[in-house]
Amino acid sequence: MSKQPVYVVMNAGSSSLKFSVFEPHGETEELSSILNGQISGIGEQAKFVVKDANRTVLAKHTWSQEESACRDTLLQYVLTWIENAGDYEIVAAGHRVVHGGKHITRPVQVTPAVLAELDALTPLAPLHQPHNLAPIRLLAEKKPGLAQVACFDTAFHSTQPWVARTFALPRSLTEEGVCSYGFHGLSYEYVTQTLLTGRTDLADARIVICHLGNGSSLCAVKNGRSVDTTMGFTALDGVPMGTRTGSIDPGVIIYLMREKKMDLESVEDLLYRQSGLLGISGISNDMKVLQESDNAEARQAVDLFCFRVAKEVAAMASTMGGLDVLVFTAGIGENSPEIRANISERLEWLGVKLCDKANVESRYYISAHDSKVPVFVVPTNEELMIAKHAQAILSPAVGHA
């Protein structure tokens, strides 16, 4: 009896490896998630946990500090556990890769040439790209026959017009690749598809999607395509985030280096890890913690976040010449009625008005009956988007029509 083919999706970071397993069903081979897990604490004391589709914990494991430094060992453990968890055969692996650069604008099957091209993009995303590529290399070594697909956070934004992607820098720098790329593209792609499927009335709608989480950004979608977004050359730009500044006057960086004598590494640490909600509040980068706090600085952090998000919604509406639909997604966007209400109140002039009851209950449709702009809460699923891309590219190769 043949084993059940499954697709593995991997999202690797500096200290963690998140993974999901998807199983195709029926004649249409619709994918469903059967396992979700992660290894956290890589390099320190790595911990493995995996859950089934009902979020029941199936297994846990902890490694010593010495073992935790070996990604090879940790990845092999994940692969072996998956294949032993059921009658499964891993037929393909899909990977989230932050940067595809200017030329890779759609998911691709990984080859040595593709891997070399992605490696060359590391200077554009030094904090993410090497970690994204590490499991691809390890899998190529351990399972050389396994098909792998790379999916990019930048790809969805490749449809943006020149004016949305270009900085007012000398053209020579723009031609070298110093331009706006945008990120969270896999999330925006999934939310757009979910929202527009079966809705011909929204096919040409002017939509702003607010992906609000520890990392946050917004995207303007028109005719189902990205036309503007808040993140730019890096994932540091745009609205304030958990520990990242969001948009900041570049002169501040010059000041810090000249007057405060901060070196490059110190500035980078400040902008990426000490700022945002954490820096403003001095308490936490967790929005839930800040909302539950009576501290005045925590309240200010929440208000600044909402102010900046609303400001960017208006900017996205300007790009499109209006706003027809507003969408909230990701951890904060999906789970915080207070944040959605705060942002929406600032956008009443654009015709946004929430139904308090629907918002508190986090329903799919949360607009008031007299709102001129429909407002939705659409849970994102980047892992499923990656699995679908892997299936679409590789299904003929693994024997699925």
The CATH superfamily of the largest domain is: ATPase, nucleotide binding domain
Gyration radius, in Å: 22 Å
Number of separate helices: 16
Average pLDDT, rounded to a whole number, is: 93
Q: How are the strands of the biggest sheet laid out side by side? A: 5-4-3-2-1-6-8-7
Q: Which spans of ≥5 residues are poorly predicted at pLDDT below 50?
A: 397-401
Percent in strands: 15-25%
Characterize the main sheet. Answer: 8 strands, mixed
CATH topology of the largest domain: Nucleotidyltransferase, domain 5
Residues in helices, as a percent range: 25-40%
What is the second-level CATH architecture of the largest domain?
Answer: 2-Layer Sandwich
Number of domains: 2
Taking the alpha carbons of the first and last residues, their distance comes to: 20 Å
Derived structural class: alpha/beta
| Order of H and E elements | EEEEEHHEEHHEHHHEEEHHHHHEHHHEH
Detail the topology: elements first, then pairings.
Blueprint: E1 4-12, E2 16-25, E3 30-40, E4 47-52, E5 57-62, H1 65-68, H2 71-85, E6 88-97, E7 108-109, H3 112-119, H4 129-142, E8 147-152, H5 162-165, H6 171-176, H7 185-196, E9 206-211, E10 217-222, E11 225-229, H8 250-258, H9 264-273, H10 276-281, H11 287-292, H12 296-320, E12 325-329, H13 330-335, H14 337-345, H15 356-360, E13 375-377, H16 382-394
Describe this structure in words.
- The longest helix has 25 residues.
- The chain folds into two domains: 149 residues, Nucleotidyltransferase, domain 5 (2-Layer Sandwich), CATH 3.30.420; 184 residues, ATPase, nucleotide binding domain (Nucleotidyltransferase, domain 5, 2-Layer Sandwich).
- Helix 7 packs across helix 16 and helix 12 crosses helix 14.
- The radius of gyration is 22 Å and the shape is globular.
- It is built from 16 helices and 13 strands.
- It is 38% helix and 21% strand.
- The strands form two sheets. It has an eight-stranded mixed sheet, with helices on both faces.
- By secondary structure, it is of the alpha/beta class.
